[in-house]
Design brief:
Layout (H helix, E strand, L loop, with lengths): L2 H8 L5 H8 L5 E4 L9 E4 H6 L4 E9 L14 E3 L3 E10 L5 E2 L2 H6 L3 E6 L4 E9 L7 E9 L7 E10 L5 E4 L13 E5 L2
Parallel strand pairs: 4-12
Antiparallel strand pairs: 1-2, 3-5, 5-6, 5-9, 7-8, 7-10, 8-9, 10-11, 10-12
Length: about 190
């Protein structure tokens, strides 16, 4: 195990986006099976993304939003109560070079669109903006949220994240597994309040 991977495993409680900003993508790792952040069992890397025609590699985290939150907001989780807000954060990397694509003007010039697609067909547009809105340090990442309505069924809910630019270059984050297997952050659990 390399020192970099060991360091990430020791800081797993922190945000994946914070870790990415400190180490800029740790040797091409893009996502990991079962929520084990950048462990030795990396599920997607730049080489695999390029072989699968992925122009963009998406790294994401899911946190609890502040709207009607049961418990503290902004915590990494895959379990939400009805009425709570699910918030997705994402960072994009080039599938061919591994370079982090985070220059706001460049992304807007590319016409970049990033969306979360829920299994029920709803979509959540993600916006590239500076965080936090006040205070420092300032970082840019994609963010989007969805409030769970009372009519949403309880149980497992899957989603995927897609990225596309004006020239038709794309990337998709679909974690391995299915609804019957929890593969964070692919499968979310919705519970009664």
């Amino acid at each position: 195990m390399t020192e970099e991977i060991k360091e990430v495993e020791e800081t797993e409680e922190g945000s994946i986006l914070d870790n990415l900003n400190r180490r800029d993508f740790i040797k091409g790792a893009a996502a990991a099976v079962g929520g084990v952040l950048f462990s030795s069992s990396v599920a997607t890397n730049l080489e695999a993304a390029a072989h699968n025609g992925q122009d963009y590699v998406i790294v994401s985290e899911v946190v609890k939003g502040s709207a009607d939150s049961v418990g503290p907001p902004c915590q990494l989780t895959s379990t939400f109560k009805k009425g709570e807000q699910i918030v997705w954060h994402a960072v994009l990397f080039s599938g061919s070079t591994g370079e982090k694509l985070n220059d706001h003007k460049e992304l807007m010039d590319r016409g970049m669109k990033v969306q979360v697609e829920l299994e029920n067909g709803e979509t959540v547009d993600m916006n590239h903006s500076e965080h936090p809105p006040s205070g420092s340090p300032k970082i840019y990442y994609w963010g989007g949220s969805w409030k769970i309505s009372p009519g949403v069924p309880t149980g497992k809910m899957t989603y995927k994240i897609t990225a596309e630019d004006d020239e038709g270059r794309t990337g998709t984050l679909e974690m391995f597994g299915d609804k019957t297997v929890d593969t964070f952050p692919h499968v979310l659990t919705i519970e009664e309040r």
